[in-house]
Amino acid sequence: MDLEARLHGAAPSEHPEALRLWLRLLTCTQLVEKQVRARLRDQFGTTLPRFDLMAQLERTPEGLKMKDLSRRMMVTSGNVTGITDQLVAEGLVERVDVAGDRRVFLVRLTPHGREQFDAMARAHAQWIVEAFGPLGERDIATLHRLLGKVKAHAQPAPSLQETTA
Description:
By secondary structure, the chain is mainly alpha-helical. About 70% of the residues lie in helices and about 10% in strands. It contains 8 helices and 3 strands. The protein has helices spanning about 5-10, 15-45, 50-60, 65-75, 75-90, 110-130, 135-155, 160-165; strands at about 65, 95-100, 100-110. It has a 3-stranded antiparallel beta sheet. α3 crosses α6 (about 110-130). The longest helix has 28 residues, at about 15-45. The radius of gyration is 20 Å and the shape is globular. The model has no long low-confidence stretch (mean pLDDT about 90).
C-alpha cells in the first residue's frame, strides 16, 4: 500500500492539501524508482546504485577520488568502495594512481564501461519520458517551474550551508 492509499481512509480535513501533495510526490517518486530499478536489473543486470556511480563518473571523464564519489552520491565511502570493487572486477571502471600521492587514486569509466553506461543512460532517459507520458509539454514545464519554487524555498540559507558542510 502506498503512502497516499494509507491516507485514503482518513477524513480530508485532517490533512491539508500541502501534506496530500507531499504524499503524492513521494508516492510517484517511489513508483517510478521501483520501475527504473526493475528495468535496470532486467535489461542490464545492474542496480540503481551502480548506475548512479557510473553516471557520476560519466560526468567527470578524468575520474573522481573515492571521497568525492561518496560525497556526490551522498552515501558512505564503504558503499562506494563495494560498488567500485564490483565494477572494477567487471572491467567497467578502473582505479588510476594520482601522481605525487600514493594514498589516493581516481576512479573512472573504462571504454567498455562508457559504452555500457551510454546504453543504460539512453534506456533510462526513455523510461523517465514514459513515466511522464500522461503529461503534455506544458504540464511538464509548469510542474518543473512549480517544483523549482519549492526547491528554492527548501534550500538552506547560505550561512546554514557553511555550518553543516
